[in-house]
């Protein structure tokens, strides 16, 4: 009876506050105590002892929005107007066009007060004097956009409707560097600047800024003025500050690091370029990097050359350069420049795309119309704005693109593959390589990429993070090192933001020498990074040139001896020996002898009654992750059709839609992922990660390359040569799959393979700080599966 009494009392408590609008925000709480208070509260005042505003940023912002909604929608005179009004305020997203239309239809005649107070959310008041923005249409990037612009501005539409029409009409998203959007939105912000318009709403701009991904770049600015302009531009004032930021900062060579960072966020460098018609000299370059190798960029380059020839000027930030007839003066050079500006090749070292100083001198000296040039300029002064002074600095040479590529043509099957190049996924989805799809090892036709739901990091941001992941976002309070950590939800919204403790982005000091925050540098043979006063380095053992005795040098981190006595860390990592485990920061109590794959995580029966335990190996990045579970529990009672599609393969080579089906049929798990073909399903193999796998297929399913057949039995030396690094006659290395590859032997492995290597440096202190801020609620986000 006590149970039912408790249940009835709880229901009564919940029902008391059923009409309270703040109930819509309860799912945004982070602590269970605050959530319980929310679902039983009747007003915001009931939360003052259980919910801290500093810990529940999104929750309290939502409550403020609901309070505004109560005041606004209380003016509704019809049930339908009240319903559509509440929908505006209950939505976590910026109101859609359908929602705005619903407010106009339901409230415009009966409830003018509602129309007035939701103006900041819906922009339902028609824009007056649309013709004042018609000149912006001349800045359209293409004819389709220009026609859409004229049509929209001549109609009696709202600000938001015009923006929607422009995006649908070929103008693209509202990016701050696009001249059309600069012109239109800056004018729109000047028109709608009434006090009502400035009321705060919980839109994406309020929560995320215009582009939170680029806010990280702002702290790379050299001058404090550029840092301030950058923060204003990408938080919520870009229509007012972008022009100054572009002119005073992005056009300065001193801010090259800042500009490169912004470019990396907006258009990351991608491998290879092909399929261009106008900029055909850029084709067949599979190993070079480009930011925008697309047909749209190809067309834009053609348009630029025609425009320069027609107008006789070259537009640069804050300057118009008069040019001679470019159809006669180095036409191929001008074509190459237009293609470089649009296709944007990246230098392999710095990812910059500044043209070299010699090319700049030659072109401006020959083709600039100096008679029409304003006084006070010279080729040297102009080139100092576009090209690096240091002759050794990385730059893009025009000469390499004046002729077709000299690389021998390769058939598509032999080229380096980039499945996600060109972004084949729908809007708001992230493309990633489908590791479970390999033509030689997959039974059916499969896509080489997969698309997952993502979250935009701001109203105009093109940068997406995958659903379920956590992201750090700078707080624009003027203080460096202040961040919040947020999660991308399954429905594409950044939520559950939690502030992190602020930490100063101090420089590092090494041997009395100051090293700036964010700098990569070499210390002997190791690559190091300075981040917030902390130096993080690779742990390669460097050879001492003054040391004559070779006995002391083992090449392994911390100069550990190459003995193969594996231990399993409680972070899920198998270390070749205890010395290397301690070198990685583990103590004696953090590991036990024997490889991790030899431990049965289900031996202690950790699952509940009615569940089946199955091994599920993972590596945890933080030792604060306690425990780093190596198993998963599968219900033997649930309907398997309700489980998500996550294919698995049994030891007989039969594939199941998920673990539930495998358990239901009483089979043994071989590996997670679809069953592979063209690989051996039997016979132990040693992976390059030092773990023994049940088969070649099992290693491939874990995205691990096979080192050699049999149990892992040796630890390899570390060297740059593609040669066998283990001194054991029992190990037989397979031949390289291609006789033409240079080959590399992974650190600690024995045999060379045809592959490349990527080294990632990360700060354990920063990982632990994020885990602490999340109060242990995001263990999976700090794991590598």
Automatic annotation (TrEMBL):
Tagged with keyword Membrane: yes
Keywords for this protein: Cell membrane, Disulfide bond, Glycoprotein, GPI-anchor, Lipoprotein, Membrane, Protease inhibitor, Repeat, Serine protease inhibitor, Signal, Wnt signaling pathway
Top-level taxon of the source organism: Eukaryota
Main location: membrane
Pfam (any one): Kazal_2
Key word Cell membrane present: yes
Gene Ontology terms: biological process: extracellular matrix organization; Wnt signaling pathway
GO CC, any one term: plasma membrane
Kazal-like domain location: 552-598, 622-677
Subcellular location: Cell membrane
Membrane topology: Lipid-anchor; GPI-anchor
GO molecular function, one term: serine-type endopeptidase inhibitor activity
PANTHER family on file: REVERSION-INDUCING CYSTEINE-RICH PROTEIN WITH KAZAL MOTIFS, SERINE PROTEASE INHIBITOR
Homology family: Belongs to the RECK family.
UniProt-recorded name of the protein: Reversion-inducing cysteine-rich protein with Kazal motifs
Organism: Diaphorina citri
Gene this protein is translated from: LOC103522092
């Amino acid at each position: 009876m006590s149970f039912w009494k408790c249940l009835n009392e709880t229901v009564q408590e919940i029902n008391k506050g059923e009409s309270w609008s703040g109930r819509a925000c309860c799912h945004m709480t982070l602590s269970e105590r605050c959530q319980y208070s929310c679902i039983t509260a009747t007003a915001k005042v009931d939360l003052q002892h259980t919910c801290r505003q500093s810990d529940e940023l999104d929750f309290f912002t939502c409550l403020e929005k609901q309070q505004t909604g109560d005041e606004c929608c209380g003016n509704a005179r019809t049930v339908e107007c009240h319903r559509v009004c509440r929908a505006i305020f209950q939505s976590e997203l910026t109101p859609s066009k359908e929602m705005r239309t619903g407010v106009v239809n339901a409230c415009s005649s009966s409830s003018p007060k509602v129309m007035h107070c939701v103006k900041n959310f819906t922009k339902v008041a028609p824009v007056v004097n649309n013709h004042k923005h018609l000149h912006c249409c001349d800045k359209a990037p293409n004819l389709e956009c220009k026609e859409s612009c004229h049509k929209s501005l001549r109609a009696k539409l709202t600000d938001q409707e015009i923006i929607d029409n422009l995006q649908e009409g070929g103008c693209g998203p509202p990016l701050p560097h696009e001249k059309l959007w600069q012109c239109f939105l800056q004018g729109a912000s000047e028109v709608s600047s009434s006090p009502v318009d400035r009321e705060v709403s919980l839109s994406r701009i309020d929560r995320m800024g215009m582009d939170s991904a680029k806010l990280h770049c702002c702290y790379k600015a050299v001058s404090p003025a550029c840092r301030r302009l950058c923060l204003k531009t990408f938080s919520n004032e870009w229509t007012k500050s972008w022009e100054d930021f572009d002119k005073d900062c992005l056009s300065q060579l001193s801010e090259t690091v800042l500009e490169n960072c912004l470019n990396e966020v907006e258009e990351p460098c991608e491998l290879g370029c092909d399929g261009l018609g106008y900029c055909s000299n850029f084709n067949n370059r599979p190993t070079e990097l480009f930011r925008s190798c697309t047909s749209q960029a190809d067309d834009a380059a053609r348009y630029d050359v025609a425009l320069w020839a027609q107008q006789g000027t070259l537009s640069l930030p804050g300057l118009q350069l008069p040019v001679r007839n470019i159809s006669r003066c180095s036409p191929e050079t001008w074509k190459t420049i237009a293609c470089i500006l649009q296709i944007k090749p990246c230098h392999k070292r710095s990812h910059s795309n500044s043209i070299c100083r010699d090319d700049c001198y030659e072109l401006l000296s020959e083709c600039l119309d100096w008679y029409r040039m304003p006084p006070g300029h010279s080729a040297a002064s102009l080139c100092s704005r576009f090209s690096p002074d240091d002759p050794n600095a990385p730059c893009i040479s025009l000469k390499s693109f004046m002729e077709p590529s000299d690389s021998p043509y390769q058939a598509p099957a032999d080229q380096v593959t980039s499945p996600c190049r060109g972004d084949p996924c729908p809007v708001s989805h992230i493309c990633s390589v489908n590791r479970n799809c390999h033509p030689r090892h997959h039974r059916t036709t499969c896509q080489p990429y997969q698309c997952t739901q993502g979250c935009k990091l701001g109203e105009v941001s093109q940068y997406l993070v995958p659903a379920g992941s956590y992201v750090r976002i700078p707080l624009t309070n003027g203080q460096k090192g202040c961040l919040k950590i947020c999660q991308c939800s399954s429905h594409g919204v950044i939520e559950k933001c939690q502030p992190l403790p602020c930490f100063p982005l101090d420089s590092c000091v090494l041997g009395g020498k100051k090293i700036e925050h964010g700098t990569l540098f070499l210390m002997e043979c190791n690559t190091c990074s300075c981040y917030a006063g902390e130096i993080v380095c690779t742990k390669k053992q460097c050879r001492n040139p003054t040391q004559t005795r070779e006995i002391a040098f083992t090449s392994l981190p911390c100069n550990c001896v190459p003995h193969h006595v594996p231990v399993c860390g409680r972070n899920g990592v198998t270390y070749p020996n205890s010395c290397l485990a301690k070198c990685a920061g583990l103590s004696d109590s953090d590991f036990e002898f024997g490889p991790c794959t030899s431990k049965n995580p289900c031996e202690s029966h950790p699952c509940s009654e009615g569940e089946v335990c199955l091994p599920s190996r993972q590596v945890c990045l933080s030792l604060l992750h306690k425990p780093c579970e190596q198993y998963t529990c599968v219900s033997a009672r649930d309907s398997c059709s309700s489980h998500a599609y996550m294919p698995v393969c049994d030891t007989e080579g039969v594939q199941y839609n998920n673990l539930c089906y495998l358990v239901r049929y009483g089979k043994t798990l071989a590996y997670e992922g679809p069953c592979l073909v063209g690989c051996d399903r039997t016979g132990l193999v040693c992976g390059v990660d030092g773990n023994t796998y049940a088969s070649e297929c099992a290693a491939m399913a874990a995205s691990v390359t096979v080192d050699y057949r049999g149990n892992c039995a040796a630890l390899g030396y570390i060297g740059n040569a593609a040669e066998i690094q283990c001194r054991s006659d029992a190990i037989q290395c397979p031949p390289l799959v291609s006789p033409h590859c240079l080959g590399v032997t992974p650190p600690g492995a024995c045999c060379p393979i045809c592959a490349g290597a990527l080294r990632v440096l990360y700060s354990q202190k920063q990982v632990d700080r994020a885990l602490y801020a999340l109060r242990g609620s995001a263990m999976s986000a700090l794991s590598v599966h």
